[in-house]
Amino acid sequence: MALTDSALIIAPSLLAANYSRLDREIQRLNRSGAEWIHLDIMDGHFVPNLSFGPDTLRHIRPLTGLFVDVHLMCERPEILIQPFVESGANLITVHAELGPRVKDLLWQIRSCGVHVGLAVNPPTSIESALPHLDAIDLLLIMTVNPGFGGQSFIPEVLTKVEMAARRRKAQQLKFRIEVDGGINPETGSQSFQAGADTLVAGSSLFRRTHLKSAVSQLRSTCMRQSLNLPL
Ligand code: DX5
Ligand code: ZN
């Protein structure tokens, strides 16, 4: 999967999966038509929740060839980057809210030989990401306040997506624009229209009996919308 092509990528978030049967959930993902798996890593400090660690990825890595997109919502990502790389991550994202530490963190991820992502929370200005745009492969514009799945999409964030897309074009950069939180066919197509090309979705996909048709519906709604076809 070339990271720099502009094709729409669907990245189901494992946060919304049924952990009592993770192997079967991974098989469902393998058959779903999604290109990536999004792993939300929460440390109970940066966000008020806990999720999985590198060992979870180590166990699921042999079960899938999908691209693994690791989203570190962690206060000290520097201690997790290497373990996630060793467990099979393909891309690691850290948060712009970590401020002066971001430059070194992005370098640390790059030096581990995996793709580099930077995330921006809804209240955080997109300006905080601008100095790093030439150092990243992916800009994650959060469409909910991080910490929990199943929240409602924050539409005001769409202006940040549009600005990021304009900057990418103006600076002739190649980073992908990812959105994460409250993504369903309606909000996904709004985000795609605004310039996002990578959609993270958890509850809107996993709550459906047929994950494959949920992924297909998310994708087709975005594509139809972009062609101004009736929904
Ligand atoms: C928030 C998480 C969620 C998750 C997707 O910290 O990052 O956004 O990936 O959750 P849904 O799709 O259920 O909003
Ligand atoms: Zn996420």
Account of the protein in words:
- The chain has 231 residues and is an alpha/beta fold.
- The protein has a single domain, classed as Aldolase class I (TIM Barrel, Alpha-Beta Barrel).
- The chain has eight helices and eight strands.
- Strands 1-8-7-6-5-4-3-2 form an eight-stranded parallel beta sheet.
- β3, α3 and β4 form a beta-alpha-beta unit.
- The chain is globular and about 45 Å long.
- The mean pLDDT is 96.
- It binds D-xylitol-5-phosphate and zinc ion.
- The site of zinc ion has 6 residues, from β2.
Keywords:
single chain; TIM Barrel; 8-stranded parallel β-sheet; 8 helices; 8 strands; 33% helix; globular; binds D-xylitol-5-phosphate; binds zinc ion
Summarize the structure in short.
By secondary structure, this protein is of the alpha/beta class. It has helices at 22-30, 54-60, 81-87, 102-111, 158-170, 185-194, 203-206, 211-226, and strands at residues 9-12, 36-42, 67-73, 91-95, 115-120, 138-142, 176-180, 198-201.
Q: Roughly how many Å is the radius of gyration?
A: 16 Å
Q: Using the coordinates above, name the CATH class.
A: Alpha Beta
Total number of beta strands: 8
Principal-axes geometry comes out as: globular
Quote the beta fraction.
15-25%
Mean pLDDT over the full residue set: 96
Q: Segments where pLDDT lies below 50 for 5+ residues?
A: none
CATH H level, superfamily name: Aldolase class I
CATH topology call? TIM Barrel
| Total number of helices | 8
Main β sheet profile:
8 strands, parallel
Distance between the termini: 28 Å
Q: Mind telling me which CATH architecture this is?
A: Alpha-Beta Barrel
